[in-house]
Amino acid sequence: MATIAFIGLGNMGQPMAKNQLSAGRTVRVFDLSAEAVKAMTDAGGQAAKSPAEAAEGADAVITMLPAGKHVKQVYIDGGVIDAVGKGAILIDCSTIDVLSARDVIADAGAKGVLMVDAPVSGGVAASEAGTLTFMVGGSDAAFAAARPFLGAMGKTIVHAGPAGNGQVAKVCNNMLLGISMIGTCETFALGEKLGIDPKVLFEISSKASGQCWSMTSYCPVPGIVATAPSNQDYKPGFSAAMMLKDLLLSQEAALTAGATTPMGRVATEIYEKFVESGNGGVDFSGVIREL
Q1: What are residue 8's phi and psi, to 5 degrees?
Q2: 82 CB-side CA count, 13 A
Q3: With CB atoms counted within 10 Å of each terminal CB, which end of the chain scores lower, N or C?
């Protein structure tokens, strides 16, 4: 039976860790929240006093952390890389900046430990259902080692290329998502002012060249797509604060790469304003209120 160290038990991490338990694995956990740790021990997990203690002797270490600095603190400063054996696989599922991901994976590689960056898409519902999408960066050997563990948490697992490319795929995808959601919101706002019923506009655009996921699967107007957060007063599946985080990462990456992303910059500014107005906990589709 494989032993997993799971570090970071937030809204996404907790159900991901529970899915490892459901797969029959021993799961040792660490989080700064005693409540989150208790929820896992109540479910059958084992509590560790530090990230390094959780990782010692583990077959795999999985992390779900807020930012690049936290990933470095856990793996490098917190001693996780040094605590595992060379046969272990390290899997960081956090969404962080590309350079931090590559730095940590390089540090692991220098010590003979395989590691991947594997940010996720799908939100809390997919995390609970074990149907997440993983975008994985790392060597072929690291991807092969990580795949069985990712399979307990996700339905779609894509090797995006070398170290850091999982983060590249995630940040590019979510920049597009932020832009397309704003465009969808603007479309419905304009249609309303011009006097067209939003359901009629949806019926047309969802089958015409304006069709996109933000409209057909996640429509920001209530009463059109039954499963969309707009029908639950914009209770977040993916919060505006999280969208802003990813858009800021996209702009940081664009600056580093020398890429021009004017639409990404404008989308970032719109979500900054929305979050600063006290809407960080609202679903990102709730930005229609701002428009």
Answers
A1: 110, 95
A2: 8
A3: N
DSSP SS3 for 159: strand
Q: What is the DSSP letter of 278?
A: I
- In angstroms and rounded to an integer, the radius of gyration of the C-alpha atoms of the chain is 20
**Residues in Cβ contact with 182 at an 8 Å cutoff, skipping those fewer than 6 apart:** 266, 267, 270, 287, 291
Supply the mean pLDDT for the chain: 97
The predicted pLDDT at position 124 comes to: 84
Indicate which residue of 38, 111, 155, 170 is catalytic: 170
Closest CA to 90 of 134, 158, 133, 150: 150
End-to-end Cα, the chain, rounded Å: 52
- Give the residue among 236, 227, 92 at the shortest CA–CA distance from 167: 92
pLDDT of residue 251: 97
Model pLDDT, residue 123:
82
pTM for the model: 0.92
Q: Answer yes or no: 111 catalytic.
A: no
The H-assigned helical ranges of the chain are 13-22, 34-43, 51-55, 68-72, 80-83, 98-110, 123-129, 140-150, 165-194, 198-205, 213-216, 240-257, 262-274
Domains and CATH numbers, the chain: 3-162 (3.40.50.720), 168-289 (1.10.1040.10)
List, for the chain, all residue ranges whose pLDDT scores fall below the cut of 50: none
Under 8 Å between Cβ of 156 and 133: yes
Of 131, 136, 142, the closest CA to residue 169 belongs to 136
Distance of CA 283 to the CA centre of its chain: 15
Say if CB 77 and CB 71 are below 8 A apart: no
β-pair partners for 120: 134
Maximum Cα–Cα distance for the chain, whole Å?
65
